[in-house]
Specification:
Distance between the termini: 89 Å
Radius of gyration: 32 Å
Order of helices and strands: HHHHHHHHHHHEHEEHEEH
């Protein structure tokens, strides 16, 4: 092997680097296949990568760039076909996997070339050994480093601008790092002695830029999510304040029912009498919707939701001891119960049959834990995996899950947890919060 040949990374090493980069991301994501099927798909992918680079190795130099495009497309389809992600998400991860593969292949081959030039001899066994150690260390470390930024149970929701930004970063790093191999006499080309070093350095720089983009993206995503959750919490609190004013108005109207009775007795016109009776019936139904659980904030939330359910022929059954939630903040009570009932009401409102519009809410104590359970009837069974949000029925998908996330955030604030499940045509949301000793003692005295 002459000096020119030793400067080129062997095609099998490049193929293996691209395959390992794809596998690293596939293992981070929610996969379509499991067990033997997944292992067979990995083996097939490895064969395709080796075949592609074997063919590319015998093609003329002017087909080098189309060959790399084909390799990138193979990486894209490998990730997209193996995982439950959107096309944009797959493209974003493919770009990152490609730069990672370029850096890894360049880095391990630079180590080997340095040894070969220093010792003056070539050893295939040593090149394979360096490849195994380098690939193992880089991909293992990268897996655990990148895993924190990749949500396994939810989509990354990559937008077009973010995908294009990643593509331009990868394209710039790739062109600058490889220009010396294709056009050695340009102002941007490296001297032969430093060619591999520059290539590795540029690929590493591209990898760092992609990491910086990912961290910035994660920061903006968290900020946007917090802003949306705060808007949900504020909306629930505003509804609570508005409901207090409405309840006071309802109490005054109910107090005036005696005047309705006098008017009905004195009225001789049957039509007007029927009108008065209808108005009084509505006032009575509204008064019946008023809850009395022992917690004023919960009473306001339940009264508002009960009145809505009564008007829309939704059966809301509530068995709640409001004293148990006295240690929860006003906004947390509004968030937990407001969002839970809103989601349940939205779900059952789709059913034309009123007998299927069923919602059950219960609050009770189990040992030293507060148990909150909200369940509603389902016509069709939901296909949910552990940790996933149920499919949304909202027209705006961007705000999907913020209600449940605000409930989860409120429960975790008190060292509690939220779980969701679906079985036997019922959707269940359960919240478990440890009751503080002071609160427990107060309730026992009461």
């Amino acid at each position: 092997m002459n000096f020119g040949e030793i400067m080129n990374t062997p095609r099998p090493f490049t193929a293996l680097a691209e395959w390992c980069a794809c596998i690293s991301y596939i293992l981070m994501l929610r996969r379509r296949l499991k067990g033997p099927g997944l292992a067979a798909s990995f083996a097939g992918m490895l064969g395709l990568f080796f075949l592609l680079h074997l063919i590319a190795g015998i093609l003329p130099l002017y087909l080098w760039f189309p060959g790399m495009i084909t390799a990138i497309l193979l990486m894209y389809f490998s990730i997209y076909a193996s995982c439950r992600i959107s096309p944009y998400d797959a493209g974003f991860l493919c770009v990152r996997a490609f730069v990672l593969a370029e850096f890894t292949a360049s880095f391990q081959w630079q180590l080997y070339v340095w040894w070969a030039l220093s010792s003056g001899r070539v050893s295939r066994t040593l090149s394979v050994l360096i490849m195994v150690i380098s690939y193992g260390c880089i991909y293992t470390g990268y897996y655990f480093l990148e895993k924190e930024h990749i949500p396994k149970d939810e989509g990354m929701e990559v937008e077009r601008k973010e995908l294009l930004g990643a593509v331009f970063i990868a394209l710039g790093a790739f062109l600058i790092s490889n220009i010396s191999f294709v056009m050695p006499n340009t102002p941007f080309s490296s001297a032969t002695s430093s060619l591999l070093y520059v290539r590795t350095l540029v690929d590493f720089g591209g990898l760092l830029m992609l990491f910086a983009q990912q961290n910035r993206r994660k920061e903006l995503q968290v900020r946007s999510e917090n802003h949306a959750m705060n808007r949900v919490l504020q909306r629930q609190y505003d509804q609570y304040r508005m409901a207090i004013d409405n309840m006071e108005l309802l109490r005054r109207e109910f107090h005036d029912l005696k005047h309705y009775m006098i008017a009905i007795r004195a009225e001789k016109d049957p039509e007007k009498r029927e009108q008065y009776l209808s108005e009084m019936e509505k006032a009575i139904l509204t008064q019946e919707a008023m809850a009395n659980t022992g917690n004023q904030v919960l009473d306001v939330v339940l009264t508002t939701k009960s009145a809505y359910c009564a008007q829309n022929k939704i059966t809301l059954t509530c068995m709640a001891d409001g004293k148990l939630i006295s240690f929860l903040h006003v906004k947390d009570i509004c968030s937990i119960f407001g969002n839970a009932l809103d989601n349940a009401i939205e779900c059952v409102s789709q059913f034309e049959d009123p007998e299927k519009r069923l919602i059950n809410l219960s609050i009770f104590k189990r040992n030293h834990f507060l148990m909150i359970q909200c369940e509603n009837y389902l016509e069709n069974q939901l296909s949910m995996e552990t940790g996933c949000l149920p499919p949304t029925t909202k027209s705006n998908k961007l705000y999907h899950g913020y209600g449940l996330k605000s409930i989860q955030a409120a429960s975790e604030k008190y060292d509690g947890s939220m779980t969701i499940s679906s079985s036997d045509n019922w959707f269940r949301l359960q919240i478990l919060i440890p009751i503080q000793k002071e609160t427990l003692a107060t309730n026992e005295r009461a």
